[in-house]
Amino acid sequence: MLGQRRSIRPRDRKWIRALGALTLAGTLGSGAARAAQFTVTTTSDAGAGSLRAAITSANGAAGADTIQFNIAGAGVRTITVASALPTITGPVFIDGYSQPGTVWNTTDPGSNAVLRIELNGNNAVATGLTVNANDCTIQGFILNRFTTNSINVQSGVSGTRILGNFIGTNALGTAASGTGNGVVIAGSDSEVGGWGAEYRNIFSGATTNAGLRFTGAGASSNHVRVNQFGLSANGTTVIGGLQQGIRFESGANWNQVGETGCCYNRITGATGAGIAIIGAATDNNSVSGNMIWGNGGLGVDLGNDGVTLNDGGDGDTGPNDGQNFPVIQAAMTDEDGRVYVRTAFTGLPSTEYRFDYYANAAPDASGYGEGQLWIGTRYAPTDGSGNLILHATAGSWNNIPAGTMISCTAAQDGTWNTSEFSQNVACYYGRPIVTNTNDVVNGNTTSIMHLVGAPGGDGISLREAIMAANNNLDAWTGNYIYFDLPGAGAQIITPSSPLPSLQTSTYLGGWNDPEYATTPVVRIDGSSAGAGANGLVVDNDWCAFYGLSITNFSGDGIRLNKGYTEIMGCHLGVMPDGTTCAGNDGAGVFINNSQGNSLGNPWWGDEPNVISGNAGGGVVIDGADAAYNAIRHSYIGINVAGSAAVCVQPTGVVVQNGAHDNTVGTDQLAKRNVIGGHTLDGIRLDNADDNIVLNNYCGTNAAGTAGIPNARAGSC
User: Fold this and answer.
1) CA dist 172 to 40, 75, 177, 194, 228, Å?
2) 446-462 b/e with 16+ CB inside 10 Å = b?
3) Among candidates 446, 478, 66, 3, which has minimal Cα distance to 219?
């Protein structure tokens, strides 16, 4: 795919994988479709039934031939060659898995494959198998003790498949047995490993250069998937035996090692780089989603000369065009093991890049990272000056603990030149927890990570937390703000001016304060915020407010200018006790031309919203774009006990000015609204069509046993 200059995104994997499976199925199909079949029946180096004779015969036969094995005797059958085998000059399928007793791998990680055919160079023969023909497959071999290469795929050759072999190891895959290079490929469109663990090759013992080496401009569009370098067959024990895991050199281009989300390779135990990319013309090579750690050199080394420092504008050339690496400014993990990373990057102007994030148990000795565990990928463009600040969230399924080292690579979209790893940065535990009732800004609000790492001397204020969340403009998931205010019982935050509107998807969790029981203990009071100030203003989709009391603002308690916000267990215009009046001059909640917002949830959450005492009404849904909003599990005009009217307001719910397809009520009767005690209407629909009102208690208490009427007759 890379050879066609095509971007491989996560959404493409399903069909690519299916195509790969079909390709392999066709390649590994029955011998009936092939021109001729030759069977190796002896471990002898020459003569009838030998591998040497089978290759010679296949070279002389027309069409795509098969070489299979049926050598008598139990256990590993070793073919020790005294001289180079014939070069393969015609398409052939050499199937070590045809030997009786051989078993494909069925485990991951590692390999429980049972291989029975060993090809041994006796530390005297240069190369094991040399391929100079298109569309050849070599699978199911133990190859070791060759002085130069176990397998050599020559320039101009395409379509070679190397699958399920132990290369440079002993017969069990438990120790290095030596080879010069494991596999050298100068051709194109090869598959080393495949889409599934059954195709995993194990590489070790490469004492000359690398387990896998791509060389020359003809080494293009090759794919390396699900292989293991430097590890025993058990997938955990490091056996090393590699100078480098993988090496690209002399113009090798458009090759792909691994893929995010699947098909990763494990590379460890090399004395040098995990992956070395060498030579000015060696470019467009993608390294993504692999596990690379514990090597003597860098995880990825452009130039095989140690850390290649970034340059301004990234206009240099060299291996993979000298791609700049990202700079991780901060990394933080939360109680769910999710990692938040702030990344700075300088590249080409107005260009999209792929950023792969990795977690590492220990720092690399160089100070720059490796990639022990891929935890996420993000695509993002630079600005017109080539700069980018990226807030990425990753690793939520990996349970990343605090102290884990985080690193990252960058790759230009379209060219797929992959950088070296960024520097190591240890992630620290934290959520932005509001720990004071002050309204000052003396912490670092550059980002949530910065604020948690560098709060003011008085802790974190609500204003600081919102400002820091707003600076995470391109976070993958929402920003979470918790509370732990000092003192027992309800505490008051009194902004001296309007709070910043929410510019990102943000969760404000009054429920998370340790003092919270069933009613709010966090009260945001607007008595000093100034004329026209609203309490909380939402200017980005997907926010949530849980367990807050919002009182005494001269505007609305909550104003929703964007959609999909959830409000649960909040007291709007009513103090935390649910009975004392402290109304807002506007509406309790004003939904302004936005969609999909929800008051209450029919499936979870026991505490209702209490909305009363607001001069502009309880809930107002306004405008032609106000649609698909739902009002549920709210006591509007009613106290928290649901027993009596409290804190008089003129109207309960108003749907107006073209608002449509909104729902007041629910079919979950335990989460119905209770609306009563208003001086005008309980529910009013004004120039609003196609709205649904159902199953509310309107004009009664929460039990439906006593009247709490709304003053205007017939208003419900």
Assistant:
1) 22, 11, 11, 21, 14
2) bbbbbbbeebbeebbbb
3) 3
What DSSP string runs through 529-552?
A: S-TT--SEEE-SSS-EEESEEEE-
Strands 161-163, 692-694: pairing is unpaired
Residue 70 carries which side chain, given as an amino acid letter? N
Cα end-to-end span (Å), the chain: 63
Long-range Cβ pairs for the range 668-671 (8 Å, 24+): 668/602, 668/603, 668/632, 669/695, 671/600, 671/601, 671/602, 671/632, 671/633
| Residue of 643, 631, 632, 623 lying closest to 671 (CA atoms) | 632
Rounded Cα–Cα distance for residues 569 and 546 (Å) = 6
Q: What are the tens digits of pLDDT across the range 403-418? A: 999 999 999 999 999 9
Model pLDDT, residue 713? 61
660: pLDDT strictly greater than 80? yes
Report residue 477's pLDDT band, with 50, 70 and 90 as the boundaries. low
Q: CA geometry: angle at 233 spanning 231 and 238, to 5°?
A: 25
- Looking at residue 323, what DSSP letter applies? P
Could you give the C-alpha distances from 709 to 73, 550, 614, 642, 712, in angstroms and in order? 95, 25, 18, 13, 9
φ, ψ dihedrals at 450, nearest 5°: -65, -40
Query: What tens digit of pLDDT does each residue of 111-129 get?
Result: 999 999 999 999 999 999 9
> Up-side HSE of residue 519: CA atoms within 13 Å toward CB?
18
pLDDT tens profile 366-388 = 999 899 999 999 999 999 999 99
What residues does 533 pair with on adjacent strands? none
Calculate the average pLDDT of the chain: 91
3-state SS, 338-366, equals CEEEEEEEECCCCCEEEEEEEEECCCCCC
β-partners of residue 604 are none
- Indicate the pairing of strand 653-656 with strand 683-686: parallel
Q: How many Cα atoms within 13 Å fall on the side-chain side of residue 369?
A: 29
Cα torsion 382, 471, 335, 443 to 10°: value is 130
Q: Is 603 helix (H, G, I), strand (E, B) or coil?
A: coil
Q: Helix %, strand %, coil % for the chain, to 5?
A: 10, 35, 55
Q: Which two tokens stand for residue 390?
A: 């990226």
- Whether residue 275 is predicted with pLDDT greater than 80 in this model: the reply is yes
**DSSP label of 184:** E
Classify residue 29 as exposed, middle or buried by CB count within 10 Å of its CB (0-12, 13-18, 19+).
Answer: exposed
**In terms of Cα–Cα distance, which of 54, 103, 51, 109 is closest to 76?**
103
Could you give the 3-state DSSP secondary structure of residue 32?
Answer: helix
Do the Cβ atoms of 195 and 21 come closer than 8 Å?
A: yes
Q: Which among 340, 354, 339 is positioned nearest to 446, based on CA atoms?
A: 340
Bridge partners (DSSP) listed for residue 692: 663
Alpha carbon distance 655, 675 (integer Å): 15
- What does the pLDDT average to over 124-150? 96
Task: Write the pLDDT tens digit of every residue in 86-97.
Answer: 999 999 999 999
Strand partners, 256: 223, 286
- Res. 715 pLDDT band, cuts 50 70 90: low
Q: Is the pLDDT of residue 26 over 70?
A: no
Separation CA 658–CA 689 (nearest Å): 7
Cis (ω within 30 of 0) for the bond into 109?
Answer: yes
pLDDT digits (tens, 9 = 90+) for 523-534: 999 999 999 999
8 A C-beta contact, residue 324 and residue 346: yes
Spatial separation of the C-alpha atoms in residues 147 and 383, rounded to whole Å: 51
